[in-house]
């Protein structure tokens, strides 16, 4: 007899019935069973190598096989059977993520002879709700919100039949025994509710729609409908995602390359940020990109079956900064299409972008969570992430499990109704008693304060990790690196010296326990602190004034000053250090480009100036030579409290902003000016790290800038994030990896 251990995503994806059918077709005897920790155990009486090869080639579409181990064993069997799950004590088995509806289910819902014809909750072992409905482990129906919908006789037969596609599929239902949709305030139920919702949408109305992870709010993509939606959601300029009927429609609205097409059609069905082909002005104002996704539930497919329109704005039904609604949203709309199945776990749509041929996740949630990431750290811990774009992560059995996207924890509702609940859920869900609670170094974040409270309650030790070190470590964790040079570029992080960081080169050596700042961007003064973040002209003033020592160059920008502001006031604030904050931030650098080129003088959503600057920039052959100087400043080591002093190189840039502004005044194309400033930033970082004999990693929100990454790639080989976001949504992974400093 031969034992075959298969590890990977092989549970909750129809793998055991597939093994059963394959073994029976080959006339093999033995068994298959789940043994926990993402492992399936198979015993066969002969041909193990042939069988293992067929496992890899013919596996179910949602299954991922990481490793196959074949060894000899004892035993004797008369047939091939599926045994009850059970195995090594202490190992855990997570459910798969929520998957997009599969092709077989899609065919059934449009087959008039099928009992699931036009049924919006049609799923099987290859698709449907998983994590969003799960409230405890193991992932069995009684531990999901579908326990409230007992299976009818027909569904029960499918569930118990190993030959059926729905064998042991926890999410299966049908019109007879499952949940249903209804439309308020019209009082229509079932398919009629969906048909009426489509009529309302086609007529220009706004409809809230409950999906598998929360409520969307939908309307047509025409300017009038979207303008009204902006007023409802109080999002004056933030880009909205668009759901399109099919891939052909996606190619009508945007340019789609093969990698982007593959992501759009994948089982995760994320929002993919694409280069615009159609204008879609109100959908994504002053951007050259638009976020597009394909239908990913049976409901979406049925809805588009009734719609005349081929595209809908489909965005989360919540006010800015608040968590995605999972109950009836308190938002003005014309109708609400809702269902009677509880969503236990909020799950936003995931967002990604192809940057320089690399898949980069911007928001990691539906379709990705709760996929674990092995990081080789032997402890139980929880990390609480960043303040903005928050996610948390838990550590168990050497694996990090990043949570779904949580959002802005400075927002009262997000912090109290989502973040705190998520912390308690994940600790209980995986039965974790943390040895460590890891937090950001910033002492005033809600998450930092909560870390102290959580540690006192659980008896854990608190570890504070500097923000940009966590960015660097998030890439190192993905790649299993112990040593790296890290380019960390984002908007803001609390620095070891009390200033705002955001454009750093770090040297990290986990084995030697070294974390050293090698270089930084030239510091500028943020006039009014956070006011400068929301009004980039203040940052531009600071940069120009630092180089020129006057503001004559900015005379054409006086028209953008707000009531009560003047350049004379800014000068006084600058000279006398009145309400200023020093910052070495790549994000503020991008803001200043947006202000100089006049594409964004007020930030109304996170990242707006940088995104508009990226959309404006066009490559030009003229470049600037980076200016890098040596400075000498103290720097503290963050893990054990010891300190050391080193030279820190400083990347100067105020001179090129002055030069660029003069070029603009002479009539040079602002697109070329924007590109050269972005290119300068990238090449300056390359200059710092060139010639190193250790891996280079790049992380932070500026890593999503396609021009920055293209310029970086021309001169440098580097790793960046692929499994978690490069922005703040991914630092919870890096925070856990920081435990390697402690040799746990």
UniProtKB/TrEMBL annotation:
Name the keywords, alphabetized. Hydrolase, Ligase, Metal-binding, Zinc, Zinc-finger
What is catalyzed by this enzyme?
an acyl phosphate + H2O = a carboxylate + phosphate + H(+); C-terminal L-cysteinyl-[HypE protein] + carbamoyl phosphate + ATP + H2O = C-terminal S-carboxamide-L-cysteinyl-[HypE protein] + AMP + phosphate + diphosphate + H(+)
Using the UniProt record, name the top-level EC class of this enzyme in a single word: ligase
| Coiled-coil parts of chain | none
Give the Acylphosphatase-like domain ranges.
1-84
Q: Which Pfam families match?
A: Acylphosphatase, HypF_C, HypF_C_2, Sua5_yciO_yrdC, zf-HYPF
- The EC number(s) given in the record are 6.2.-.-
What InterPro entries would the database entry show? Acylphosphatase-like_dom, Acylphosphatase-like_dom_sf, Acylphosphatase_CS, Carbamoyltrans_HypF-like, Carbamoyltransferase_HypF, DHBP_synth_RibB-like_a/b_dom, HypF_C, HypF_C_2
Under which name does UniProt file this protein?
A: Carbamoyltransferase
Q: Which organism is it from?
A: Geoglobus acetivorans
């Amino acid at each position: 007899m031969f034992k075959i251990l298969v590890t990977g995503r092989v549970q909750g994806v129809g793998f055991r019935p597939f093994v059963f059918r394959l073994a029976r077709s080959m006339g093999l005897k033995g068994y298959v069973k789940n043994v926990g920790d993402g492992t399936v155990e198979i015993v066969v009486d002969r041909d193990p190598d042939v069988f293992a090869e067929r496992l890899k080639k013919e596996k179910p579409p949602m299954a991922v096989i990481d490793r196959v181990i074949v060894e000899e064993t004892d035993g004797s069997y008369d047939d091939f059977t599926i045994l009850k799950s059970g195995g090594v004590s202490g190992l855990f088995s997570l459910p798969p993520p929520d998957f997009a509806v599969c092709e077989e289910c899609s065919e059934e819902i449009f087959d008039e002879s099928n009992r699931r014809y036009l049924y919006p909750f049609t799923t099987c072992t290859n698709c449907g709700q998983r994590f969003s409905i799960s409230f405890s482990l193991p992932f069995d129906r009684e531990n999901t919100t579908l326990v409230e919908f007992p299976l009818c006789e027909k569904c029960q037969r499918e569930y118990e039949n190993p030959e059926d596609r729905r064998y042991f599929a926890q999410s299966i239902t049908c019109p007879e025994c499952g949940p249903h949709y209804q439309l308020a305030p019209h009082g229509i139920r079932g398919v009629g509710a969906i048909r009426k919702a489509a009529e309302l949408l086609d007529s220009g109305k706004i409809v809230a729609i409950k999906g598998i992870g929360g409520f969307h709010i939908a309307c047509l993509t025409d300017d009038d409908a979207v303008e009204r939606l902006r007023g409802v959601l109080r999002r004056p300029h933030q880009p909205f995602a668009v759901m399109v009927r099919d891939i052909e429609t996606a190619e009508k609205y945007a340019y789609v390359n093969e990698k982007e097409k593959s992501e759009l059609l994948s089982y995760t069905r994320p929002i993919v940020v694409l280069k615009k082909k159609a204008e879609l002005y109100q959908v994504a104002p002053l951007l050259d990109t638009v976020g597009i996704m394909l239908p990913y539930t049976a409901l979406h497919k049925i809805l588009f079956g009734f719609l005349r329109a081929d595209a809908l704005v489909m965005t989360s039904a919540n006010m800015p900064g608040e968590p995605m609604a999972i109950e009836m949203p308190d938002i003005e709309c014309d109708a609400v299409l809702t269902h009677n199945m509880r969503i236990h776990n909020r799950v936003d749509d995931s967002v990604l972008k192809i940057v320089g041929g690399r898949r980069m996740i911007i928001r990691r949630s539906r379709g990705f969570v709760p996929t674990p990431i092995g990081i080789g750290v032997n402890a139980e811990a929880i990390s609480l992430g960043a303040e903005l774009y928050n996610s948390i992560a838990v550590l168990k059995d050497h694996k990090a499990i990043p949570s779904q996207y949580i959002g802005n924890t400075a927002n009262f509702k997000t912090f109290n109704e989502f973040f705190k609940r998520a912390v308690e859920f994940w600790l209980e869900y995986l039965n974790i008693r943390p040895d460590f609670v890891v937090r950001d170094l910033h002492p005033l974040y809600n998450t930092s304060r909560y870390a102290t409270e959580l540690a006192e309650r659980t008896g854990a030790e608190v570890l504070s990790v500097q923000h940009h070190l966590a960015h660097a470590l998030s890439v190192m964790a993905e790649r299993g690196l112990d040593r790296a040079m890290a380019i960390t570029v984002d908007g803001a992080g609390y620095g070891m010296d009390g200033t705002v960081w955001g454009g750093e080169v770090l040297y990290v050596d986990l084995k030697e326990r070294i974390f050293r700042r090698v270089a930084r961007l030239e510091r500028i003064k943020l006039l009014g602190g956070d006011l400068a973040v929301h009004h980039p002209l203040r940052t531009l003033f600071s940069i120009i004034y630092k180089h020129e020592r006057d503001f004559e160059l900015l005379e054409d920008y006086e028209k953008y000053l707000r009531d009560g502001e003047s350049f004379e006031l800014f000068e006084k604030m600058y000279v006398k250090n009145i309400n200023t904050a020093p910052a070495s931030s790549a994000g503020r650098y991008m803001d200043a480009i947006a202000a100089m080129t006049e594409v964004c003088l007020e930030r109304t959503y996170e990242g707006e100036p940088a995104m508009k600057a990226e959309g404006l920039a066009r490559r030009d052959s003229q470049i600037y030579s980076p200016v890098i100087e040596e400075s000498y400043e103290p720097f503290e080591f963050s893990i054990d409290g010891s300190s050391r002093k080193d030279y820190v190189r400083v990347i100067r840039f105020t001179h090129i902003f002055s030069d660029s502004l003069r070029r603009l005044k002479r009539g040079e194309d602002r697109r070329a000016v924007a590109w050269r400033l972005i290119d300068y930033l990238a090449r300056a970082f390359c200059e710092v790290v060139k010639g190193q004999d250790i891996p280079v990693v790049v992380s932070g929100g500026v890593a999503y800038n396609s021009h920055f990454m293209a310029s970086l790639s021309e001169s440098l080989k580097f790793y960046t994030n692929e499994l978690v976001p490069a922005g703040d949504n991914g630092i919870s992974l890096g925070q856990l990896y920081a435990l390697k400093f402690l040799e746990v």
